[in-house]
Amino acid sequence: MLADLVVSDIGIFEHAQISLDEGMIALTGETGAGKTLIVDALNLLLGARAEEGTIRSGAAAGRVEARLWEGGEVPRERVVVREISAKGRSRAWIDGHIASLGELAELVGSMVEVHAQHGHHLLLSERAQREALDVFGKVDSSSLIELRRRIRQLEGDLASPEGPLDSLGELQAALDELVQAGLGDPDEEDRLREERDLLAKATQLREVGIACLADLAGPEAAGALEEEGRLSGRRERLGVPNPDPALEVVKRLARRLGAEAAYAEVAGALAEAQDALEQAAMALRLRVAEMEDDPERLAGVQERLAFLGELRRKHRVADLRSLIELRERLEASVVEATAAAERRLKLAEELERLRLELELREAEVLQARRTAAERLEGAIAAEFARLGMPNARLKVRLVGRAGDESFFVWSANPGESELPLSKAASGGELARAMLALRLVLSAGPETVVFDEVDSGIGGQAALAVGSALWSLAQGRQVIVVTHLAQVAAFASSHLSVSKETRGGRTVAEVREVSGEERIAELARMLSGHPESEAARRHAAELLEHSQP
């Protein structure tokens, strides 16, 4: 609610301070006295652009201040200021802090609605009209809004890149290849190279081993591995002489020296050597027995080495350990991508379910808005008739699957095209249309200002407008700029604007009138002669019958 308004150096106002109460407030005065300047001052707080001549001639700046009570469970006092320099610069404050013009307009606009030719018409916006329709018809669109929000969120989630999910097939193929490769031993290549080298010269190594075994333990020991003749032939090819076997020599020496006490120590060492040679002969025999020429195994080893080498080159790694680590990383990526794919599938299923639910909810909300629109149109038609506009019609157009783009269209007379309310109504018609809407709609700002609401009417219609304004003022503050006594008489408080010349300058002032002063002002409005006894009697009678 607007509690106080201070206007300084705006138009012909040098300084005016107005205190305002709840209920209906009439603002009257002679033509040109400055009534509309009060509305213009409020529009400046609502972000309106300062027109040329707004700042009082000779003043460095014009200033509008207001103290408002913001409704709610705990009412809050708000103090707002707008200052406009003569050079056109604008500054604003909210509760003593510098604010942007947009912040000022948003705050004041949430509490004050002005219906005038250049006023702040909240109900002229399609969004406000749809919200008003929903409040009037008790249409609950919260679940619809939540459904749409959830659908947008799911669509965004499904549209966003999923990283590994985009190449799940490639990841799985690479992983399958590494799994099938049977990688386990990071040293496998080194082991295979040793085996390959051994298999490549197995025959030669076997021949050398057999010959050495014969020299170590005798032909009999080697004969179990190969026939003597073949052994002798190989020995000759290898250029190996046929000495006595080393074991026999050591045994023989040990026996000879063991008979002499003087050589007991040497004989003991030879006995140890004999044991060592026997162990070496046994190990050599086993190793030679294992060594076989196996072309198939050699081919398999070479093929495995080639495969592992190609696999490393393909994945650009230096060793098998890196390939094993790559396989582990791929396993983790595939698990992640698979989970993401499952998640996306669930999201897609949820999205489809919500879209079906949305269609049903949109149909329900559309039907509810259609019902509300019919009721609203009927109620507005009744108010139009009461306000002296019996031929005017206001229709609600529902556009969109749920009527989300609802808006009001207006026709002042039969046969005229229906146009959006803001484009079709004149100043007075628009003000009365807004009055009718505010009477029918339960929601709205705490302060509503009307200018030109009584334009072009009189008599019974003027009384009806005054009565309607009084009804609207029950529970809120309604300020009406009027030139009709029939309207002003309904006000619970009456402000009169007058002007006079001081020091060669025209100055306007605002003061509250009551009692005989108010009767005189109403008489002036009725006849132009505030001192006329007949006019004063008429004014007193009008006031008596207009007050509840």
Which features characterize this protein?
six-stranded antiparallel beta sheet; 548 residues; 55% helix; 18% strand; 19 helices; single chain; alpha/beta; six-stranded mixed beta sheet; rod-shaped
* Poorly predicted regions: 227-233
Major sheet description: 6 strands, antiparallel
Task: Provide the residue-averaged pLDDT.
Answer: 85
Number of helices: 19
Rg over CA atoms, rounded to whole Å, is 53 Å
Strand order of the largest sheet: 2-1-4-5-6-7
Name the beta content range.
15-25%
Notes on the structure:
The protein contains 19 helices and 15 strands. It is α/β, with parallel strands linked by helices and 548 residues long. It has a six-stranded antiparallel beta sheet, covered by helices on one side. The protein has a six-stranded mixed beta sheet with strand order 8-12-13-3-14-15. It has a three-stranded antiparallel beta sheet with strand order 9-10-11. The two termini are 22 Å apart. The model is unreliable at 227-233 (pLDDT under 50).
List the helices and strands and how they pair.
Layout: E1 2-10, E2 13-19, E3 23-29, H1 35-45, E4 61-70, E5 76-85, E6 90-94, E7 97-99, H2 101-109, E8 112-115, H3 126-137, H4 142-159, H5 168-180, H6 188-200, H7 202-217, H8 219-223, H9 228-238, H10 246-258, H11 264-290, H12 295-315, H13 320-386, E9 393-397, E10 407-411, E11 419-420, H14 421-424, H15 427-440, E12 447-451, H16 459-472, E13 477-481, H17 485-488, E14 493-502, E15 505-513, H18 515-527, H19 533-546
Parallel strand pairs: 3-13, 3-14, 8-12, 12-13
Antiparallel strand pairs: 1-2, 1-4, 4-5, 5-6, 6-7, 9-10, 10-11, 14-15
Helix pairs in contact: 3-13, 4-13, 5-13, 6-12, 7-9, 7-11, 10-11, 13-15, 15-16, 18-19
